[in-house]
Design goal:
It is a single chain. The chain is an alpha/beta fold. The protein has a single domain, classed as Ribokinase (UDP-N-acetylmuramoyl-L-alanine:D-glutamate ligase, 3-Layer(aba) Sandwich), CATH 3.40.1190.20. It has 13 helices and nine strands. The protein has a nine-stranded mixed sheet, sandwiched between helices. Strand 8 and strand 9 form a beta hairpin. Helix 11 crosses helix 12 and helix 11 packs parallel to helix 13.
Amino acid sequence: MIKAIARKLLDRKPDTHKGDYGRIFVIAGSSSYTGAAYLAGQAALLAGAGLVTLGVPKSIYPILASKLTEVMVRPFFETRDASLSLMAEKEIVDFALTSDVVAIGPGLSMNKETQQLARHVIAKVEKPCVVDADGVSSLQGHLSVLKTARHPIVLTPHPGELARLLTVGTVDVQRDRNALAIDFSREYNVVLVLKGHGTVVANPSGESYVNTTGNPGMATAGAGDVLTGIIAGFIGQGLAPFEAAVLGTYVHGFAGDLAAKEKGMVSVIASDLLQKLPEAIKSV
């Protein structure tokens, strides 16, 4: 399954240009979480995307613009907490129209206005959308947003985040991860990536995939942000959301395995996954 999906990704014709490999719009970051935005944007690029634009609050624009060379950085209106503001909604939604896929959530913060913005963007963008981290949290008490969305959504919660969405305990989520992922995916019409040991990817048709790569060293800040960027990058290159999520979780875990083999699990950090991503994709 993995190799069959990968062949679609690697089938590049000689007479192509960067626009043929996806325009990715990553909406991420706040004053306390500049690293999350960096990791997601850079991961999308390393996953093979042709063009990546990172949308961030204007206060952190100089930080990301100086740190990222190939990823384009675009500043938007912000709150007093230097997180994205509702005033940015129209500009964000309009810019999304020029993109092939939108990723939203890494490092956005739990600011109430920013959380409201995230829900509005998830509901209104007319492109495939990868929702992670604070984007997932914005849906607490608002799961109806998923049912009314007019575009494919890939939701990437860890067990605690999914438990909060469903108002159950984490132990309830972990009891039968595969069955729960399929049920959630069907009910809310999303591709669900339930992260953790043996990440489960499920789609509304009832298909599921349990990932076999990865290791405990990947339980580190920023690893999920890298996964978000990878999945968005693969969707931008033409993979269906379920295919992108399956291949994305595989190569993400494989990159973690390569990093752990080199450094040992204890010292693996999220930027190591970025470093090993090209080798992981090449190996697949």
